[in-house]
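User: Design a sequence. Structure:
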């Protein structure tokens, strides 16, 4: 089953034209979580980061996953 992962963060937006073959929706969700956390880690700045991934199949969106990294100095 082919899944597409459209990505948007604080600096970048991309529509997945190629897709990835995965066994099913659960695998696609795990892949989206791994992607979002990796991107958030890479783009997080002093003020934090927001990453949005929309998982879709060939017909329609299936899942929207958002990861927010917030930073607050406590000193």
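Assistant: Done.
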């Amino acid at each position: 089953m082919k899944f597409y992962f459209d990505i948007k963060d604080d600096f970048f937006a991309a529509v997945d034209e190629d897709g990835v073959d995965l066994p099913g929706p659960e695998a696609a969700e795990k892949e989206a979580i791994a992607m979002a956390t990796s991107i958030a880690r890479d783009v997080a700045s002093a003020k934090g980061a927001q990453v949005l991934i929309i998982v879709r199949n060939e017909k329609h969106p299936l899942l929207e996953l958002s990861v927010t990294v917030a930073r607050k100095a406590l000193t």
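The mean pLDDT is 90. The helical segments are 25-43.
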